[in-house]
Amino acid sequence: MAARTKARKRALDILFESESRGLSADGTLADRLEVNDPPVNPYTVSLVEGVAANIEQIDALLEEHSHAWPLERMPAVDRNLLRIAVFEILHVDDVPDPVAISEAVELATELSTDESPRFVNGLLSKVAQVKDQPTDTNQPTD
């Protein structure tokens, strides 16, 4: 398994644990860094901190494009995989969008429901499509 793939999986573990414990997205990161067994990859730290710092933007995008599936209805694994991938799509320039999507789909295949890979792929593909679309700032105001 490639280093970044392992880092993504570890980031997923940390985000999932934080959510399960009712903590902020990076709520268990300090614990993992302190224990450091197994060692925490710097890319894992970057992902967890990036998701935590941008969670409102990420969740808003997911809500906007997941139509029939509000975040709270998604399996926790899917929700956190999507957060990691959306962070990479929006903020990590050296990871091509198709790689971020593919990695998330692979983890969904390994760790989530039978329907999850297709759902994750479709939702992330939509986010990748719209990320560079300019927002219309010339709309009339009331």
From TrEMBL:
Which keywords are on file for this protein? RNA-binding, Transcription, Transcription antitermination, Transcription regulation
Answer whether the UniProt record assigns the keyword Lyase to this protein.
no
The GO terms describing molecular function are: RNA binding
Q: Does the keyword Ribosomal protein apply?
A: no
A single GO cellular-component term from the record reads: cytosol
Domain NusB/RsmB/TIM44 intervals: 6-128
GO terms (BP aspect) = DNA-templated transcription termination; transcription antitermination
The text of the family note is: Belongs to the NusB family.
Purpose of the protein: Involved in transcription antitermination. Required for transcription of ribosomal RNA (rRNA) genes. Binds specifically to the boxA antiterminator sequence of the ribosomal RNA (rrn) operons.
Q: What is this protein called?
A: Transcription antitermination protein NusB
What organism is this sequence from?
A: Aeromicrobium flavum
